[in-house]
Amino acid sequence: GSPDRPQRDKPWVIRTYAGHSSPAESNALYRRNLAKGQTGLSVAFDLPTQTGYDPDDELARGEVGKVGVPVSHVGDMRALFEDIPLTEMNTSMTINATAMWLLALYQVVAEEQALAQDPDADFAAVHAKLAGTTQNDIIKEYLSRGTYAFPPEPSMRLIADMVAHTVEHVPRWNPVNICSYHLQEAGATPVQEIAFSMATACSVLDAVRERVDASRMPAVFGRISFCVNAGVRFVEEHAKLRAMGVLWEQLGRERYGVTDEKALRFRYGVQVNSLGLTE
Known about the structure:
Strands 1-2-3-4-5 form a five-stranded parallel beta sheet, with helices on one face. By secondary structure, the chain is an alpha/beta fold. The chain starts with 16 loop residues before the first strand and ends with a helix. It has helices at about 25-35, 45-50, 75-80, 100-115, 125-130, 140-145, 150-170, 180-185, 190-210, 215-225, 235-255, 275-279, and strands at about 15-20, 40-45, 90-95, 130-135, 175, 175-180, 225-230, 270.
């Protein structure tokens, strides 16, 4: 085209939320989808994995591999991503209570892949290429979903430690995805959804601020993303999203001293309201 014509943006990451049966079965599904043009991965973990149980625990009986893939050690993670180069992938992991462990396993598999290519691989360089998201919003579990494994204070420590770690060592990773989505599923109005999720975000940021140098807060703020609900009240839902964007920028500027326009962007994904669809 002519040089004055605006350049098309890069396409968004295309991925389907998937995982079932076993790591090997899920790996086959991922590779089929990637071969058909999917550009990233979104991993669904089964409930035992989400709440920290091994598949052979009696409390896991009947739930293994049902609403996602079971992953309980590095061998499972290795099988899940076999022949999928993690440094070239963008992987979302819908995981909360055990997010820290799952990210650690993911990093180890990426390191193993790098070692297979080069025995002198630089792990810091490998971690710098890893892109994706861990949901890691354990706080919303108490209000809406219930798959927490620890009390609130240790849960907040897990979230904040992981945010501080990734900002320094896995800079392209989104270490927490604040979930307002589940709040509306649990009965919150759109206004309550904003209120509770922004309160969670502030709590997380306040906890992280104690763990990083003040100069790193813009980088921390810029890595936070949201998972938002879109119900059937069309105009109200649009107004809600606009309000969240305004509030987020205001919080960044006034509470955390962020001035970088890019870091201040409200980054969110939207899912449609299951509750409304059921009705």
